[in-house]
Amino acid sequence: MSCDAKRSCAMDWLTTQFRRKVSSLTTRVFEVEIEVKVEVRVEEEEEEEEEDEEDEEEGEGEKEKEKEKEKEKERGS
Fold first, then answer.
1. CA 15 to CA 48: how far, in whole Å?
2. Where are stretches of biased composition, namely Basic and acidic residues (predicted)?
3. Three-state DSSP string of 53-71
4. Model pTM score
5. If 0-12 CB within 10 Å is exposed, 13-18 middle and 19+ buried, where does residue 68 land?
6. pLDDT digit string, tens, across residues 4-56
């Protein structure tokens, strides 16, 4: 094998190894990106649920206040 052939073979091997590594890293980046997006969506959904629960609790408190006001009006009449 001549010197040029050895270099060519080594370069092919290195190129193949480099492409495999880049492909592996690219796949990992996409996996992490997907995981982050999923986590953000889950957190947003949890926050929305908490806000909905708080709104419902506030709504119940307002309903109770309205009922008390109506009772006071009836007593005052």
1. 49
2. 62-77
3. HHHHHHHHHHHHHHHHHHH
4. 0.43
5. exposed
6. 888 889 999 999 999 999 999 999 888 888 888 888 888 888 888 888 888 77
Tokens of 34: 């997907």
d(CA 68, CA 75) in angstroms, rounded, equals: 10
- CB under 8 Å to 9, separation ≥6 — which residues? 1
| Separation between Cα atoms, residue 41 and residue 52, nearest integer Å | 16
Q: How far is CA 68 from CA 35, 54, 58, 62, 71, in A?
A: 49, 21, 15, 10, 5
